[in-house]
Design brief:
mainly beta, five-stranded mixed barrel, 5 strands, 5% helix
């Protein structure tokens, strides 16, 4: 059984590209089905490399509240960690 494809509005976990930060909650702001090709053609938004890549809004504590990450690949959860700059599904509880 393959992993479900990420879809617009789903909550995922994200680990920062530099790996310094703990995993954060993020929401999928764009997937392959919601990506506007006109925006990509005009250079307004990056393309996605696969149907598993997403654009995210990453929630953070503090005043800024979060930041955007583009074209984020999925990462495999191993011992509670994912590689830097990747997303994964939250563990089922």
């Amino acid at each position: 059984m393959s992993a479900p494809k990420p879809t617009l509005g789903r909550i995922v976990h994200y680990r920062g590209r530099f790996g310094f930060h703990a995993m954060r909650a993020a929401i999928v702001t764009c997937d392959v089905s919601s990506l506007d090709p006109r925006g990509v053609e005009q250079g307004l938004i990056p393309a996605l490399d696969s149907d598993q890549h997403v654009h995210l809004w990453v929630f953070t504590p503090g005043e800024s509240g979060g930041f955007t990450e583009y074209n984020v690949a999925p990462g495999e959860l191993v011992d509670g960690e994912i590689p830097p700059g990747t997303w994964c599904w939250p563990a089922r509880v």
